[in-house]
Design goal:
By secondary structure, the chain is an alpha/beta fold. It is built from ten helices and 14 strands. It has a seven-stranded parallel beta sheet with strand order 3-2-1-4-5-6-11, sandwiched between helices. α1 packs across α7, α4 packs parallel to α5 and α8 packs across α10. The structure holds uridine-5'-diphosphate-4-deoxy-4-fluoro-alpha-D-galactose (UFG). Uridine-5'-diphosphate-4-deoxy-4-fluoro-alpha-D-galactose binds next to α5, α6 and β8.
Length: about 325
Amino acid sequence: MKLLVTGGAGYVGSVCTALLVERGHQVTVLDDLSTGHADAVSPSARFVEGDVATHAAALLAEGMDGVLHFAAKSLVGESVEHPELYWFGNVVTSLKLLEAVRAAGTPRLVFSSTAATYGEPEQIPITEDAPTRPTNPYGATKLAIDHAITSYANAHGLAAVSLRYFNVAGAHGGLGERHIVETHLIPLVLQVVTGQREHITIYGDDWPTPDGTCLRDYIHVRDLAEAHLLALEHATAGAHRIYNLGTGTGFSVVEVIEACRRVTGHPIPAQVAARRAGDPAVLVASSARATADLGWRPELTSLDTIVGDAWQLIQQRAGVA
Ligand code: UFG
């Protein structure tokens, strides 16, 4: 297929682009490099540097078979402090993209949604029917876009899929997390190993979980990318399908730190601090719908594999592996 990938220089977008070109798709990446990296874009893809609001319409007018929309702002804390960046950067931009899709008659859309659309869950594992009550502007903006996509699919015949990511981690094909502002657990723990920080802070050990630290569902970026390809294939005109993507297993913060110790051989000092505002105790996905409809099954589910792949890439970048 001839595809437009917005945000294809970012973490998940770049891995997905690599997989798409590997499978023979003709990919144009549109990314303004505000958080992405030009060298993460597959050399087999065409790269256009620019923002979605300004440039997507002309690219879609070339006649694309689909668009995968990764470009977004995605920091929960930042979204609380600067909601305007999220309402304009995520919602207004995505509405402009939807209008460009409609004008060009682009048949398919795959959208990067998030577990943050659910907020504090009532039931674990979280299914797609769970109430959506986001607890921060980041989740609220992604949910607003999901609603817009539903109405565009219903009214204009778009074949749309939203993928709700849980905790994405790991690396694939030399591509991994490289955030300027890092807030995610696994890269922060590995920064202790590389000497960029002295210890890892555990945000609370008094949660209602077996070891008192929060449980999250860590999904390997490669498995996540595979789901995008399946979503593209299975998207149906006039329908908007939503899928949760995780492994169905929760690992605690302490278990993640222990996996990092096993993989790296470093003692990784940890210090317990207060809970972080807005953290739910447990976030674990039910991906039964993605398995049933798309035939998707995560394969790289071992925490040591996920951490090991992230660690291998860090060493490669440092020139020691
Ligand atoms: N954590 C620590 N110390 C740190 C960093 C994180 O203890 O230095 C803990 C957090 O409190 C949390 C877990 O590690 O319990 C994972 O935290 P991350 O920041 O890596 O990920 P989140 O679960 O907060 O975020 C994920 C997605 C977001 C999404 C959110 C929904 O990355 O995009 O779930 O709540 F919005």
